[in-house]
Specification:
The protein is built from 4 helices and 3 strands, in the order H-H-E-E-E-H-H. By secondary structure, it is an alpha+beta fold. Strands 1-2-3 form a 3-stranded antiparallel sheet, sandwiched between helices. The chain is globular and about 35 Å long. The chain has helices at residues 2-9, 20-29, 79-93, 108-118, and strands at residues 34-40, 43-55, 60-70. The protein has one domain (2-102): Gcn5-related N-acetyltransferase (GNAT) (Aminopeptidase, 3-Layer(aba) Sandwich).
């Protein structure tokens, strides 16, 4: 399953509590996020899970990809770029103000990937995890 792949990539596999039932409920039943897949010969090689956020600065919604993942054996073949381009086209189609993507600071390949694509200054975001949220 892809969600364990993202946990492995983030070096937090032991923290993954999502399962198929929970994901189906929140993504498909409650429609709190959307998913697109990259397929090769009808086999999933990558995916992006995303949802809308909002910018008070722009006064518009944006698209925030929570995960963009390509299987290790399918990397360096353009699938990540194709997924990101699809997300960008969805953002344009929906009239969004931006595509906002955060990356863990140690994930240099992903940082280099996105900065190379957009050819502009990239920022690394911060977040408060579920264990730290009770401050």
């Amino acid at each position: 399953m892809f969600y364990t792949g993202t946990g492995r990539l983030r070096k937090k596999l032991n923290e993954v509590v999502a399962d198929k039932k929970t994901l189906e409920e929140w993504i498909f039943d409650k429609q709190k996020a959307e998913v697109i897949f990259a397929l090769v010969d009808n086999k999933e090689v990558g995916f992006a899970l995303f949802f809308h956020n909002f910018s008070t600065f722009l006064g518009k919604a944006g698209i925030y990809p929570e995960d963009l993942y390509v299987r290790p054996e399918s990397r360096d073949k353009g699938y990540g770029k194709a997924i990101l381009k699809k997300l960008a086209s969805i953002a344009v189609e929906r009239g969004c103000g931006r595509l906002e993507w955060w990356c863990l600071d140690w994930n240099k390949p992903s940082i280099d990937f996105i900065c190379h694509l957009v050819r502009s200054q990239c920022r690394i975001g911060l977040y408060i995890g579920s264990q730290e949220i009770h401050f």
